[in-house]
Design brief:
alpha/beta; seven-stranded mixed β-sheet; five-stranded parallel β-sheet; 7 helices; 23% helix; binds NADP nicotinamide-adenine-dinucleotide phosphate
């Protein structure tokens, strides 16, 4: 079945190496990996070391979501932390050292009913025996121009990645959202900020009871109900100094001073391309059947596009390894 392309909502590519538009080879691939975040590049490393010469298609955000954060302090092996962009560059080099081919290219359509599987990649057909979907998830954004301009200058989408940065220490902070993520991020940030304002658009949290109770019982968390962020301040100063809020019931406006805005209003898995073909839940997260295998033979999944719970670099890398091993075993069984 040919499925229409994902609406492109990605940002500009970052990783510099090997990212020219290539001519894709016209023979059958053994393994194509869609996505170049932690899951995709770990799958590439493992399948490359198994002599499968994987082809990694980066999508429009080479290196994935981690390239949008600054210091990653919770990836094992880097006691001083490592820049997210640098970490992904090193993962790419490591996979390439064993024969992975990383190409800046986008999968536009897939036909998974045929054997071999056929992908349309930048207008060209690519045939492959197996496909590892590691297309990740995108943070949902509020959608404000000021939010976009101050990203990585105080606006962030990951408290675990960025919360401990010196710029947020002992400063008032804002978390936007009312779900489990927002509560979890707010609680995590109480270790660093002087106060954490939890801004939610309703007067009841969506979060599970236990998370909501824990968050609201924390004396450093101040809920701000029925409120939406209408502007992140201050674009003129090129850093976050506060947020302008509107009360959705009274329409009254107010400004809260803060050094950081942590947006936790959910994620959007990058799986639209597979809708109706690969089994997924109502939110679009792919549901693996056994290990990392999907409902389509030869198609495996790893990382944030199938993980609505953990969403960490290290868990994505682990799943990338598992998908590579599952793909390798699938190929071995076919060739027996
Ligand atoms: P979520 O449950 O979808 O919650 C998103 C929150 O953001 C909701 O409160 C929603 O408001 C708000 N929101 C959405 N769009 C918004 C917008 N444009 N402006 C302002 N607010 C907006 O997402 P999540 O918190 O990331 O959780 C996703 C899933 O992961 C859930 O199943 C959750 O249980 C799970 N999770 C579990 C844990 C844990 O157990 N430790 C931790 C994190 C996540 P409304 O409530 O008004 O819709």
């Amino acid at each position: 079945m040919v499925v229409p392309a994902i609406g492109a909502t990605f940002r500009t590519p970052h990783l510099p190496t090997g990212l020219t538009k290539p001519k894709l080879r016209r023979f059958m691939e053994k393994v194509v990996i869609m996505g170049s975040g932690c899951a995709g590049l770990t799958a590439a490393l493992y399948t490359a070391r198994a002599n499968l010469q994987p082809l990694v298609l980066t999508g429009l955000q080479p290196g994935g979501l981690l390239t949008t954060t600054t210091i990653v302090e919770n990836y094992p092996g880097f006691p001083e932390g490592i820049d997210g962009f640098q970490l992904m560059g090193q993962m790419q080099k490591q996979a390439e050292r064993f024969g992975a081919r990383v190409k800046f290219a986008t999968v536009e359509a897939v036909d998974l009913a045929r054997r071999p599987l056929v992908l349309t990649v930048d207008g060209e057909p690519v045939e492959t025996e197996t496909l590892i979907i590691a297309s990740g998830a995108s943070h949902r954004h509020i959608g404000l121009a000021s939010e976009h301009k101050l990203e990585n200058k105080g606006v962030t989408y990951c408290a675990t990645c960025d919360g401990a940065l010196p710029m947020f220490r002992n400063q008032p902070l804002v978390v936007v959202g009312g779900g489990d993520s927002a509560c979890e991020e707010a609680m995590y940030l109480t270790r660093f900020g002087s106060v954490v304002n939890l801004v939610h658009r309703r007067d009841t949290l969506r979060a599970s009871k236990i998370m909501a109770e824990r968050a609201l019982a924390n004396p450093k968390i101040q809920p701000v109900w029925d409120s939406v962020v209408t502007e992140v301040l201050d674009v003129e100063q090129d850093k976050v100094t506060g947020v302008r809020l509107k009360n959705v019931k009274t329409t009254a406006e107010k400004v809260i001073d803060c050094a950081g805005v942590f947006v936790a209003i959910g994620h959007l898995p990058n799986t639209q391309l597979f809708k109706g073909v690969i089994e997924m839940d109502e939110a679009g997260y792919i549901i693996p059947k056994r290990g990392t295998a999907t409902n389509v033979p030869g198609v495996f999944v790893a990382g944030d596009c199938a993980d609505r719970v953990y969403r960490q670099a290290v868990t994505a890398a682990g799943l990338g390894c598992a998908a590579a091993m599952d793909a390798e075993r699938y190929l071995a069984a076919r060739n027996e």
